[in-house]
Amino acid sequence: MLQSKLFSKILKGKSADVESVSHDLLTRAGFIDQLMAGVYTFLPLGLKVLQKIENIIRVEMQKAGGQEISMPALTPKENWLKTGRWENFDVLFKLKGAGDKDMALAPTHEEVVVPLAKKNVFSYKDLPFGLFQFQTKFRNELRAKSGILRTREFFMKDLYSFHATQEDLDKYYDKMIKAYFNIFKEAGIGKQTYKTFASGGTFSKTSDEFQTVTDAGEDVIYICKKCGTAINKEIKAENPTCPNCKGSEFEEKKAVEVGNTFKLGASFSVPFDFKFKDKDGTEKPVIMGCYGIGLSRLMGAIVEASHDEKGIIWPKSVAPFDVHLIAIEKTDKVKRAADKIYKDLSGDIEILYDEREAKTPGEKFAEADLIGIPLRVVVSEKTLKTNSVELKERAKSKAELVKLNRISKILKSNVK
What angle do helix axes 404-414 and 332-345 make, rounded to 10 degrees? Predict the structure, then answer.
């Protein structure tokens, strides 16, 4: 990608009215654009990051046996009345359709997936299975804040599992916990993310949250110093000791929730009369679990966890590009060398090539640091005097000179 052709532009100076580091950096670096409070456009750079996060999650959901579907966001009132959530789901967007018909924009999809699954489940032989999707959700938050950390419209992965027994749900639930840890590790925030005991809200009595430690977080968690399990502040009074190891020493931290898992039991099956015939011919309600990850919020949490005073430091797995190639002089020699590197590597790795002539070297370096691509390659008259280029990792302060005839091999091996 030629940087001169990139749709989004760098904004100079700190963004106005921002409440978090991620909001400021993602806006200034051209990853997101705010349409109104809690609603954002993901620009080319931001969408590339979101898609890479999506692919990481998809791989783990498929490993866990999940089958991908896509459900509608527009849902009928009748389904919400059956579960009692038309009136008591406080962030539900309600709207009128043709013929004055009441509908809702789905903040979650139990009311859609349960009647869907019911059409395909008749006996214990049809269980277990899991269905997942990537879907835009809508929640009428009283106060959207902190950029993409709390929004009214957001992109989410939700998986729903269906079981004949509680024991089978418990086994699958443990499998999903491991999958979630794999996802957050691959996304670069594994060390900052904690499995956290929490309330289940409108979904179940209790739940497990995955909380990433950040000063921008709106939750307070207590991390067990003995085993690393955490408890959300909202239920800490009920749990004076760690539910995992019974330890009693905790460290208080602010955090943002990037994922959650619930054992729903039959709470959504019963309202829809969703049953199956067991081996002995008796009818029983299907047992369910649900598992969510907010992709846009996860993107914001990654920035909160990985940045410095100059800008974003993207983990390799989710970076919009693998390499930021910069030509810092206008001479034909520099242009030929940089063009050749770009041509040789294009197709093998993803490169953002800053070939702009109107920008000074200082401006180019500052913008590169703000965008945060993992590797920077600089071609200049100075480096070409030794047939070399300058190679620098975004997370490190020192650069090194690499011979021109070796740079392609080094970059290809580095981004695998």
Answer: 40
Q: Give 312's strand partners.
A: 307
Q: Confirm if 149 and 295 have CB atoms less than 8 A apart.
A: no
Q: At what angle do helices 44-63 and 166-186 cross, to 10 degrees?
A: 140
- Report the CATH fold assignment for 3-71+87-93+114-308: BirA Bifunctional Protein; domain 2 (3.30.930)
What does the alpha-carbon distance between residue 67 and residue 312 come to, in Å, rounded to a whole number? 34
User: Quick one: tokens of 377?
Assistant: 């390659």
The DSSP secondary-structure symbol of 12 reads P
Q: What single-letter amino acid sits at 18?
A: V
Q: Mean pLDDT of successive 10-residue segments in the chain (416 residues)?
A: 94 80 96 96 98 98 98 98 96 95 97 98 98 97 91 97 98 97 97 92 78 92 95 90 92 96 97 97 97 97 96 98 95 95 93 95 97 98 97 96 95 84
Residues 6+ apart with CB under 8 A from 95: 102, 103, 104, 105
Residue ranges of the chain assigned to CATH 3.40.50.800:
323-414
User: Residue-wise over 117-153: b if at least 16 C-beta within 10 A, else e?
Assistant: bbeebeebeebbbbbbbbbebbbebeebbbbbbbbbb
Who contacts 190 (Cβ-Cβ below 8 Å, separation ≥6)?
181, 184
Give the CATH number of domain 323-414.
3.40.50.800
Concatenated DSSP letters of 28-46: HTTSEEEEETTEEEE-HHH
Strand intervals (E) in 309-387: 311-312, 323-327, 351-354, 375-379
Query: Given the DSSP bridges, would you call strands 307-308 and 375-379 parallel, antiparallel or unpaired?
Result: unpaired
For the whole model, what pTM was predicted?
Answer: 0.95
Helices (H), 306-360: 332-345
- Stretch(es) of the chain classified as CATH 3.30.930.10: 3-71+87-93+114-308
Return the H-helix or E-strand segment holding 174: helix 166-186
